[in-house]
């Protein structure tokens, strides 16, 4: 049928006209665009730091300058003891965060599914989120003693509410039109959850994870400073002893490590969020 | 009417059980004094293979009516006869899942029915071919234009293997040129697959262009005011004289309805 062919061609023509010809920038320029803000931030921080040291408000042995600190950091990076401490801290971070995800998922799923539970606990979860995690430690130490369990307990309490909240928000804000579409396609209950509601809540869940990580990392550092476990080196413990021994370069070097780990993990979440947004078309990628 | 019917003018089969039948359907929202009556005693039927356009000004409960037929909402009174499992609904928005590719979106219709993976993929490709989007299966919805997304939605609705297609102003947000082409496409698909269509619109010419019948609803509450048979030969053109003539007649009747409301609203 010639008319059908004409229609098809006209449609194809319109389609071609409507589709933009946006291309993503090349890898090099994207890398540069990502790197230069970081590089300039580092330069600014180093400059201010050095300026404060030169101002001479504190003696060098109390507040070490960037050169001393960075050489101490370099020295530590070559020392196996540092890696033992780092491993312990990261193991706790990963375990605690994983537990927090599990707890957050279960709580989030239950609360978003069960109406009365939600009315009862909705504000409680937000309340828990605003509770400074360090305030949990006295109780945690009473319950678990000076042990890793005490630390993990607080890490989970710090991170799980954010993760649960992320999931609950995501479920709540599933666009009603997608729910209707899913319903029309024949998805009900669990299947509707699996194929429509959970995927739709992914961006919000990811935001919850990111926030949860920030809380987990803070709680972990507070925990490692307070709960010193004998014969177990960790970043928090190194920080603690650096202060006890008035080892200013060591203290600052450890702080830099803690900061960098926080930033790197945050960037990983940022990249995941970016990838998700690009896939969903939630933001326009500039040409 | 004297206009001759062409052979393929309509796929309507007379004397069969209707594909959709509404009997004195009423719908109230809320309760007591504040209750809003969206539909009042609407009776309507769509024969198998028939294309019925539902026309009305805003607030006539057109969308409510489709939701009821689709089973997304319950009637307050009256009854609806339709085979639920054979109904597909297309919204004004494409309502595609943004996390899935175009192909996976179409496959969702088959997934719900438990069709296997390979077969899903093959059949989704067939349905995308039907709407002339064969090469776009791997794209994401946001990479397509509005008209293309609406065609993906159509492919997804077709993939449900429904006999009854409910359409809620599906082309309302599109530009005139795209809409014209999609009218042709929809007509072709309707005929090839002998679908029964209930098509809601507020665009009179669109209704006359597409429908075997145009059913005019009043507003607040929605009632059937008049049922216009459209016995013009197909394919019709939105800008043809005959379409314009009948559209003019229906618009006149619609205007009377709207005026009736103006008089009611007038302060005493």
Walk me through this protein's architecture:
The complex is a heterodimer of chains A (287) and B (268). By secondary structure, chain A is mostly helical. Chain A contains twelve helices and no strands. In chain A, helix 3 packs across helix 12. The longest helix of chain A has 34 residues, at 80-113. The model of chain A has no long low-confidence stretch (mean pLDDT 89). Chain B contains seven helices and nine strands. In chain B, the strands form two sheets. Chain B has a six-stranded mixed β-sheet, sandwiched between helices. In chain B, strands 2-1-4 form a three-stranded antiparallel β-sheet, covered by helices on one side. The relative contact order of chain B is 0.18. Classes of the chains: A mainly alpha (287), B alpha/beta (268). The A-B interface holds A 3-4, 7-8, 10-12, 14-15, 18-19, 177-178, 180-187, 191, 195-196, 199-200, 202, 279-282 and B 70, 72, 85, 87-89, 91, 93, 95-100, 108-109, 111-113, 132-133, 140-148, 156, 160, 177-178, 181, 184-185, 188, 235.
Fold blueprint:
The complex is a heterodimer of chains A (287) and B (268).
Chain A (H helix, E strand, L loop, with lengths): L1 H17 L8 H29 L10 H12 L2 H34 L1 H16 L6 H8 L3 H25 L3 H10 L3 H12 L1 H25 L8 H10 L3 H33 L7
Helix pairs in contact in A: 3-12, 4-5, 4-7, 4-10, 4-11, 5-7, 6-7, 7-10, 8-9, 10-11, 10-12, 11-12
Chain B lengths: L19 E10 L6 E11 L4 E5 L6 H9 L6 E6 L4 E4 L11 H10 L5 H14 L15 H14 L4 E5 L7 H17 L3 E6 L2 H7 L2 E5 L6 E6 L11 H25 L3
Provide a quick synopsis of the model.
The complex is a heterodimer of chains A (287) and B (268). By secondary structure, chain A is mainly α. Chain A has helices spanning 2-18, 27-55, 66-77, 80-113, 115-130, 137-144, 148-172, 176-185, 189-200, 202-226, 235-244, 248-280.
